[in-house]
Amino acid sequence: MTTPIFSGKLDALPATLELFRVYDADRLAAALTAGTRCHALSIGSGGSAIAAEYFARCRDTLDLGPTTVQTPMQAVLDQHDLTQSDVWLFSAGGDNPDSVAASVAAFDRKARSVHLVTRNPNGAAAGIVEKGGGSVHVVPVAEPQDGYLATHSLLSSVVSLLLACDAVSRDPRGTINLLDALASCLTDMRDPTTRTSRIAAMSRLRRTDTVLVASDPLLRPTAVLFDTSIWEASLCHVQTTDFRNLAHGRHAWLHHRKDETFILALTGSDSRATWTAMEAMLPTSLKRLTLDFRSCGRLDNALSLVDGLGMLEAMGGVLGIDPGKPGTGEFGRSVYEDRSLANLANAMPAHLRHKRAAIAKSDAHDPTDDSLDVIGRNRLETLSQAEIGGAVFDYDGTIVTTAGRWSVPDQAIVDELVRLHRAGLAIGFATGRGGSAGEDLRKVLPAEMLPSIPIGYYNGGHLRFADVDIEHDHPPADPAITETAEWLRQRGELFLRHEFKHREVQITVDMDQLRHPYRFPVDMEACPPFADNRVRVSRSNHSFDIIPADSSKLVVVEALRAQLPAWAEVLCFGDSGSRLGNDYALLSHRLGISVGEVCGAANGCWSLFGAGPIGPEALLRILRVLIPSKDRRIRFDVASLGLDRL
Which among 104, 178, 202, 375 is least buried, having the fewest CB atoms inside 10 angstroms? Predict the structure, then answer.
């Protein structure tokens, strides 16, 4: 009788285990330790999903921090940045399109670090991870090819993590002891008597049954092993849950289909009593099997995976299906090799992900016909082709950081502004501040530049050139602003400290003075000048500005255009590009660039770098690629920004 392929793979597993007698887990252990107290994203699909779950359990046992387990598609489509998260990718061969897509997404989402655990150092995913500055952890296998279901690659990934975690642990069991325990389990799994007993335990299973894998949550790696393998090998129907989730309504399935259900219960020391109590209440005729894995720790989970492989072999034997070669349709290979997810990941660089996140936050329906990918590429093309004659800059959060707004701009920013001005670029500033912005600029810019630089103070409400000290040149008071200030003075309930700055054409309310800062625009709806559209509220990263409805930072753009030739385009930079941000109007056009927030409109404000870098750091990178051309024109050398794909 021919030995099933799956059984042959299981018989050869000791050879892979033996490779770990000389395996050095120190590099993997160091990577685990480096992630202490950080969030980790663990990514895998198919057999690698099991390894991803085992990684999460390992981190949990060592109290390294929370871990989220995702498929590659989840990792590609999620939009939050990963600057505070380590990404761990699990892929046996590292060549399938989905592992490539997840690798690209990890870097586009600014992962704190990226690690790939694979048997193949030459795979496409490994190339992406290494080029991006990540780490590739190669694990040994005796047989490079798994067959249909993961066997050698799964064991190798699990054992490498087990040994690395033991090295990190303050109470290590020792490599030899761990490997001996696994070797003993593999010996028992392959013992003819054990195989016979497992087939007997599964003898009542039918192809038409649903295997209900009810498990201790701490045994999720093994639950996922059964879920993915039973489904992928087309053994029968399968469903997974934990014991108490089963109790919440899912027991109705057992009532209606008890003769078509096989419960596979995976218990541990904490969940044993729960399952015992539940099992006593179930119909006696219900087919079931309980597997207990003690404390559900790292070693117990590794042993449970070995036992799980043995149980899958038994299921295949009972049902007459070889899990190592169940047979697939002609379309199967094409479906597996489809590159649509990789193409999607490549169409979602960091700045596009940033825009997607803003659109999701606004939750607005944008009826644009073009995809974000097309819009994003068109914007970059527009920037690269523009003949630039001027640039308008927001101040706080753009020229200076929000936290460092009371300091003068960094010399590197000043040097670039001076260089560009001397090359022919007309420069202006639009700020929510009053005279302090002009005062700081006069400290750092050459005196000969100042008379040609317009500054729109108070969000454009007071336009003067930079050589003018507006402490001696006040704007006339706006009646609607005066009325609003009086209304705020009567609304002490809105404030933690009843303080705000009242100028002739602007009221500034620091967010940290408000009782409910994120509700402030709604609270203002009761203010008469706001209700009848005589004033509006805009927001920066640290304050709310109340300004006349006709005030706009665009007044600085118009002032520059008045002195520029007809061909000249004006770039605009700011950091508060959301719909309520005080740079929204300044940035919501094809030559507007945010170095911070963007709006939720597809054709509105965009950034170039996504979630980071931001502020003056991002601005400096952009200024350095503004290159003088002939006729005192400036071009935007977009290619030099390094926005190309990995």
Answer: 375
